Each structure stands twice: as C-alpha cells, then as structure tokens.
Amino acid sequence: MGDLLQVENLRVRFLDAALDRMAVDGVSFSLREGEIMGLVGESGSGKTVTAMSASGLLPEGKTETGGSIRLAGREMLRCSERELRQIQGELLSVVFQEPMTSLDPVRRVGPQVEECLRLHTKLSARERKARALEAMAMAELPEPEELYRKYPHQLSGGMLQRVMIAAAVVGRPKLLLADEPTTALDVTIQAQILELLKKLNREQGTAILFISHDLHVVRRLCTRVAVMQRGKIVEEGDVEEIFRSPRHEYTRRLIDAIPRRDSKLI
Amino acid sequence: MENVLEVRGLNAWYEEGPALFGSRRRRQVLFDVSFSVGAGEIVGLVGESGSGKTSLSRAVLGLLPDYEGEIVHRSARPQMVFQDPYSSLNPAHSVGWILEEPLRAAGILDAAQRRAAVTELLEKIGLGGDYASRRPSQLSGGQRQRVSIAAAVIAKPRLIVADEPVSALDVTVQAQILRLLAELKEDYELSYLFISHDLNVIWQICSRVLVMKEGRIVEQGPVEEVFDRPRHEYTRQLLAAAG
Ligand SMILES: Nc1ncnc2c1ncn2[C@@H]1O[C@H](COP(=O)(O)OP(=O)(O)OP(=O)(O)O)[C@@H](O)[C@H]1O
Ligand SMILES: Nc1ncnc2c1ncn2[C@@H]1O[C@H](COP(=O)(O)OP(=O)(O)OP(=O)(O)O)[C@@H](O)[C@H]1O
Ligand SMILES: [Mg+2]
Ligand SMILES: [Mg+2]
C-alpha cells in the first residue's frame, strides 16, 4: 500500500520565540495507508507541533515552516483554508492533547461529537445522533445517552478525553492523529481505548499516528515508532527491535524507566 | 504528627440542570469520605476515571459549595495544581508573571528576589529562565503542566492538592519533577494530596494511599500495605492491569 502521509525535512520555527531553537528541526517520516505508527519523545521535543503541521493547524502567521508534508498527495503546508477544511472532514481527524481547548464550553457534548457528520455528510439528525452515541459507547463512556446532553465542565478529565476520541472517530477518517489520547486515563480504561484504536485500524483501515510520552504504551499498539528529542527524530524503526537494541541514549532511558520498588523517592 | 487537613464524613453534590418544580436537581458525587493528611506527608489518591478524585480536591479547596461534613485545614493558602493546566494558567500573562504572583500575594520578597526565585525554579523544572517571558499558549503540554506545578509550590504553601500533576510528562522529566516535589517536602515540610492514575508514580512518592470508587473511599492505608495486600476488588484490578 502507498504512503498516506509523507513528511520530508519538516522545519518549524515560532517567530515570537526567535531566540530559541527550532521547534521541529528537519523531521522526516512516512505513514502508509492502514498503518499505526508511534511518535514518542521528551516533553517539548516537537511531537504536537509535528502533528499540528500535518493537520494544517499551526497558529496562523506565527510560524515559519520549511520542508513538505503530503497527505494523500496534497501539500499540507501550503493549503488554502477551504482545502484544509475539506481534508479535515474527509480524510483526517485529530485528538488533541488538551481536550478542554478544543471543546466549546457552552455547547452540549453530544452535538460536538457529531459535528464532523453535520458538516461533511448528508445524514439525518437521527442518524447522526445514533452514530454519535455508538462512537461514545465505543470510547468506553458510561451512559452515553445521559452524557450526550451534558456540558463539558460536567465531565471528568478522563471522560472529556474519551469524548474527544469519540468525536475523532465518528467520521471514520482515513488518518487519525492522536496526541496523547490516553494520558488522563487509568490503566483499565487505557487498555480499552488501545483496543478501540486497534479495532478501528483493523476493521476500517484507519491509519493512526499515535503520539505518546510513554514508549511502553506505544509498544502495545504500534509496530513502528519514531523517537524525538529537541526537534529531531533521533531513532526510528520496529518497536520490538528498538526494545531489543536501542541505539540512542534517550531511547534507552525511556525503556529502562519502569519504576521499580528500589526507586522510591521518600 | 499534626494534620494539615482533616476531612470527616464528607458528602457533596453537583447541581444538575435547571430547577424542576421548585426543587433543585442535584446529584451526589462524594459519599461519606473521611481521611487526613499529616504535616510533611504525601497522600496518594487513585481511582477510576469519573470516580470523584477531582471533585474531592475541589471540595478540599472550598470550590464545591454544596456539601455536608467537616473539612478542617491548618494551612493558610492551600495551593492547587489543576488537572487541566491550559484553563488554569492565565493566558494574558507571561510565565514569569504567573510564577511571581503567589510570591507577591505572600508579600515576602522584593521584586529582584522574586525574579531570582522564578529563574531558579524554572531551571529546576527543566525549562530555564528564558521561559519567563513566554505566554502559556507558547508552551508544549508538558511544559504547561510543569509551570502549573511551579506556580503551586513557589510560595511554599503547607498543603498542595495536585490533580494528575505529572500525567503529561515523559519518564525522564517526570522523575525530575517527582524528585523536586520530594525535596520540597523534606526541606519545607510541605504536604501533598497527590492524585494520579499511575500506580508507579504513587508508589514512588506517596507514603499513604486512598482508593476511590464511585464517590467513596473503598480502601486506605500505607502504600506498601495497600499494594501488597489489596483488600478491595477494584484495587486488585488496578494492580493487575498495571502489571
Ligand atoms: N505557540 C508556540 N509559540 C512558541 N513556541 C511554541 C509554541 N508551541 C510550542 N512551542 C515550543 O515548541 C517546542 C515543541 O513543542 P511541542 O508542543 O511540539 O512539544 P511536545 O513534544 O508535544 O511536548 P509535550 O510532551 O510536553 O506535549 C517546545 O519547546 C515549545 O515550547
Ligand atoms: N461541574 C460538574 N457538574 C456536574 N457533574 C460533575 C461536575 N464535575 C464532575 N461531575 C461528575 O462527577 C463525577 C466525578 O467527576 P470527577 O471529575 O471528580 O472524576 P475524577 O475521578 O477526577 O475522574 P478523572 O480521572 O477522569 O479525572 C463524574 O460523573 C462527573 O461527570
Ligand atoms: Mg504535546
Ligand atoms: Mg479528574
């Protein structure tokens, strides 16, 4: 299968932080149709900025970019507003790292989950609601019917994160960019969300770029992983291979970091 | 040991929707919760998503008006690290201003000393003094989380309620932050109520742990005891899933 997403020598600099290094400094990787790939790395290493670039969501006029990002043949770094909206509806959805920033606090949760269907399909209101409830149940949200009518502030942090996941998968995108989608979730629910992502990938062929700060979570979902540090990819390859013989010192620290009982701090 | 926080028989409710036929619709979120936090103690709070951890922390800080029971503080200005750093950091101000604010409120240092304290703390959380001039919107998720921890600890309050303070951090940065919190506890006898869904984090930094399910504390005790001999079914599940 061909490449769905091709990132070549991506460079991003924030103009208002001119003295700092580049946020993304020459990143290249590609994702095939139906593939799941992990992107891990240090806090501040450029994972989110890479995902934002790929989805055309960098803050307008605040960055200087170089290189190229092609999604299904289209150049994402030089897309018009209209083209972007179309791509975002038909091809791509994003689960954002901080759910509260992308949900509208004064709108009920349910209509926000089905927003993408309203904009990009001809489904009736009833069909949309049915699909939204189905997606919410798949994202392991308890009592979807009741949650549908609630406002974001009435939900817990982990519930909001699952709402974001439901909203991202409801339109059955070809590519899902999931930025730390399970950080607020306890292990039992995290395992269920990873299952959901696997199932989407298996049954609908959704390609997934899974961003995480946790290499051990990535290992459970992805076959291939890229490791970022300070704006660069320092290591890339098969997850198991990397666990067997990590080449980069930072990767080694990520692997070794299962806290043991002798690592008590107090 | 003197307690900085005592909670006894706490029940709390959220108001739900508009009043119906004159009676308020409310839903109970906390049920008969009792625990304490001793001076210089780090107490962990774990529990499944939606079980009431954030609600309990809000109640402790007086942000949940509808409650019954006793919440006794021996701490002038308890500080909170919110689960969602984006909405808790004032977007209109720089990181430096945000970090200086608790010091200004406490009125203990002059301007130069405040700036020095901010630079020192920024270094300790792995950001460096340059970040003082940034706005919260110009940070990565994990950087924002570290700034909100810094804002809570900078004035050395007696009690800090931290809601998932390290959930967005990779292990290397997380270890650095946990060491800083442990150090502050030693040096200044700070106490923490520390919410985390990560049992490894709880294990590293807490001496006691509370386990919540559906608004109740179903189990509490020293970390070793609870983790080695969990009595409640949910605690067992958590431990099993954590591997
Ligand atoms: N709007 C912005 N303006 C200026 N600098 C920014 C902006 N957004 C991010 N940065 C900087 O770009 C770098 C990369 O940020 P990014 O959000 O991609 O990190 P990340 O790998 O996602 O980290 P985390 O794991 O903490 O979320 C960081 O150093 C950050 O401070
Ligand atoms: N402002 C609110 N109004 C009404 N209900 C609320 C409000 N905030 C939270 N709830 C509900 O109270 C329950 C407990 O939520 P809380 O945020 O305390 O959970 P939590 O244990 O912190 O979960 P998480 O790990 O997902 O953050 C949930 O059912 C949630 O929907
Ligand atoms: Mg990020
Ligand atoms: Mg919470």
Kindly describe this structure:
Chain A is built from 12 helices and 10 strands. Chain A has 266 residues and is an alpha/beta fold. Chain A folds into 2 domains: 1-91 and 175-259, 3-Layer(aba) Sandwich (Rossmann fold), CATH 3.40.50; 99-172, no CATH class. In chain A, strands 6-7-8-3-9-10 form a 6-stranded mixed beta sheet, with helices on both faces. Chain A has a 4-stranded antiparallel beta sheet with strand order 2-1-4-5. Chain A is globular and about 55 Å long. Chain B has 243 residues and is α/β, with parallel strands linked by helices. Chain B has 9 helices and 9 strands. In chain B, a hairpin with a 2-residue loop joins strand 8 (208-213) and strand 9. In chain B, helix 3 (95-106) packs across helix 4 (111-124) and helix 3 (95-106) packs parallel to helix 5 (141-153). At the A-B interface, helix 1, helix 3, helix 8, helix 9 and helix 12 of A face strand 3, helix 2, helix 5, helix 6 and helix 7 of B. One adenosine-5'-triphosphate (ATP) sits between chains A (14, 16-17, 23, 41, 43-49, 59, 97, 213) and B (137-143, 168). One adenosine-5'-triphosphate sits between chains B (14, 16, 29, 47, 49-55, 83, 197) and A (153-159, 184).
Number of helices of chain B: 9
Radius of gyration of chain A, taken over Cα atoms and rounded to an integer in Å: 19 Å
Order of helices and strands of chain A: EEEHEEHEHHHHHHEHEHEEHH
Coarse shape of chain A:
globular
Major sheet summary line of chain A: 6 strands, mixed
- Shape category of chain B: globular
Helix % of chain B is: 25-40%
Oligomer: heterodimer
Low-pLDDT parts of chain B are none
Give the spatial strand order of the biggest sheet of chain B.
Answer: 5-6-7-3-8-9
Tell me roughly what share of residues is in helical segments of chain A: 25-40%
The assigned structural class of chain B equals alpha/beta
How many domains of chain A? 2
CATH homology group of the largest domain in chain A: P-loop containing nucleotide triphosphate hydrolases
Cofactors, ions and other ligands in the entry: adenosine-5'-triphosphate, magnesium ion
Specify the number of helices of chain A: 12
Q: What's the story with the biggest beta sheet of chain B?
A: 6 strands, mixed
Strand-residue proportion of chain A: 15-25%
Beta-strand residue fraction of chain B: 25-35%
**SS class of chain A:** alpha/beta
